[in-house]
From TrEMBL:
GO terms for cellular component: membrane. Keywords: Membrane, Transmembrane, Transmembrane helix. The keyword Acyltransferase does not apply. It comes from Chryseobacterium piperi. Its main location: membrane. It comes from the Bacteria. The keyword Transmembrane helix applies. The chain crosses the membrane at residues 7-26, 38-65, 86-112, 132-151, 163-183, 262-281, 385-406, 418-441, 447-463. This is Amino acid transporter. It is a multi-pass membrane protein. Pfam families: AA_permease_2. One of its GO terms (molecular function) is L-amino acid transmembrane transporter activity.
Length: 471
């Protein structure tokens, strides 16, 4: 593969893949689970520590295995082909493609803010609960367009990524500055007034619906359950940084630049996320965050900051953000499926590069499946179910750093994890706590995704049986 991506390009890929639609939406649900500005910031800080700790740990593996495939390659090399395949299976069936679909749908929904006719239009097709809308068609069009651009060569995808990621970083910085300069009355003190002692949550009525202004003090294990539920949103907004490892084969000096891009990129994004949440807490009271229309807390904050023009400003920002995010996800994901094909673990056609030296077939396979997920309307549910599994695979990969230190202590390591073993252990402890609390309090987020990944086992054995038969 040609080394066409420099350090800056890699950082832009990390940041661009992370910043999608989540940061503009998830804080509403987080506030409903936590009821406190103090605890909302605590959850974002925990997520930030967790994310950067994982990136620092991944750096050691990226330097040991500086080739395309990233996390799939690490898991395969450390724990064997079966573990690598299960990750790749999950990545193709929902983790990468489901995220591409969800981000494209977010682009469509915020476009409908500027073009209300998209919201008001009758479904193109409807049969019972299943329907196809113009927003879904727009989302698919975006996926097809970005897939086509990326088949034109890595330079095309890189240019698009740098432009859109740079634009949304500048826009976010502008929103953060305006969120403190232009707000007449700050809600920060009241949102932090309860401090860490009075944790609150929403009451529900007899029908299970949330009651506005219905807050009651709670604590103990319920606090931990609330934190775990809130972290589903913050974790979802903070994943996909590992996409840069998928394109290691095309990064200049990957032994150094991949780890630098992950650490710099994740740190910068988490600082931006925390700052944006301070803007929400500064410009809106607690109920306005928790009960923002359609969870669009960024729209509510922007309307408060900029007036009626705020909805247009935030809609444009989210459109830029989601467009750039999807480009990064599409660019990176196909490289994993190409690497799997080379190992005999994916469709053989995905192995080939096209005339532009990029995996054209793998890109289109990824694009078609993501488009089908858009049509199904189930990508959102799938992503909720897979949050648990994403963290589980992160944990297995981070544990691989420790495992390799014991198994092959004399292996030459161009980069060693900072503060080893403290850094990987921090991630493993936070990740384990998150997963255990979800298993206890939010099982709808755990077992379905786990079962979905385990369905890859019979596929793995079927593939290997066929390979043995051919041999």
């Amino acid at each position: 593969m040609q080394k066409k991506l420099k350090l800056w390009d890699a950082i832009m890929l990390v940041m661009g893949s992370m910043i999608g639609s989540g940061i503009f939406i998830v804080s509403a649900d987080m506030m409903r689970n936590l009821g406190s500005g103090y605890w909302m910031i605590v959850v974002w800080v925990i997520t930030g520590i967790m994310t950067v700790a994982a990136a620092i740990s991944y750096g050691e593996l990226s330097a040991l295995f500086p080739k395309a495939g990233g996390q799939y390659t690490y898991l395969k090399e450390i724990f064997g082909k079966r573990m690598g395949f299960l990750y790749g299976w999950g990545l193709f069936t929902v983790i990468q493609t489901g995220t591409i679909a969800a981000v494209a749908m977010a682009f469509g929904k915020f476009t409908a803010y500027l073009v209300p006719a998209l919201n008001d239009a009758q479904p193109i097709f409807q049969s019972g609960e299943f329907k196809i809308t113009w927003i879904q068609i727009l989302a698919i069009a975006i996926i097809i367009l970005l897939t086509y651009i990326n088949t034109r060569g890595v330079e095309s995808g890189k240019l698009l990524q740098n432009i859109f990621t740079g634009s949304k970083i500048i826009a976010l910085l502008g929103l953060i500055a305006a969120g403190f300069i232009l707000v007449d009355f700050s809600h920060l003190s009241e949102n932090f007034a309860s401090g860490y002692e009075a944790f609150s949550n929403l009451k529900k009525d007899a029908g299970g619906d949330f009651l506005k202004n219905g807050w009651e003090p709670i604590g103990g294990m319920t606090l931990l359950g609330g934190i775990a539920a809130a972290m589903v949103g913050s974790v979802f907004s903070s994943v996909a940084w590992e996409s840069v490892t998928f394109v290691s084969g095309e990064i200049d000096n990957p032994k150094k630049n991949v780890v630098k891009s992950m650490i710099f990129g994740t740190s910068a994004v988490m600082i931006l996320y925390i700052a944006v949440n301070f803007v929400y807490l500064n410009s809106l009271d607690r109920d306005s965050i928790a009960f923002a229309a359609n969870d669009r807390v960024a729209v509510a904050a922007s309307h408060h900051i900029f007036g009626s023009a705020g909805t247009v400003i935030i809609a444009l920002l989210v459109m830029v953000s989601t467009f750039g995010c999807d480009n990064g996800l599409i660019l990176a994901g196909a490289r994993v499926f190409q690497t799997m094909a080379k190992d005999g673990m994916f469709f053989q056609a995905a192995e080939k590069n096209n005339k532009n030296e990029v995996p054209g077939n793998a890109l289109w396979m990824q694009g078609v499946w993501a488009s089908l997920l858009c049509l199904s309307g189930q990508y959102g549910n799938l992503l909720d179910m897979i949050s648990f599994v994403i963290v589980l695979f992160y944990m297995i990969t981070v544990f691989g750093v420790i495992y390799l230190r014991f198994k092959q202590p004399d292996l030459e390591r161009p980069y060693k994890t900072w503060l080893y073993p403290v850094t990987p252990i921090i991630y493993l402890l936070i990740g384990a706590g998150f997963c255990i609390l979800l298993l206890i309090y939010k099982q709808q987020y755990t077992w379905p995704g786990f079962v979905l990944v385990l369905l890859g086992l019979p596929v793995y054995y079927f593939i290997n049986r066929n390979k043995k038969a051919r041999e």
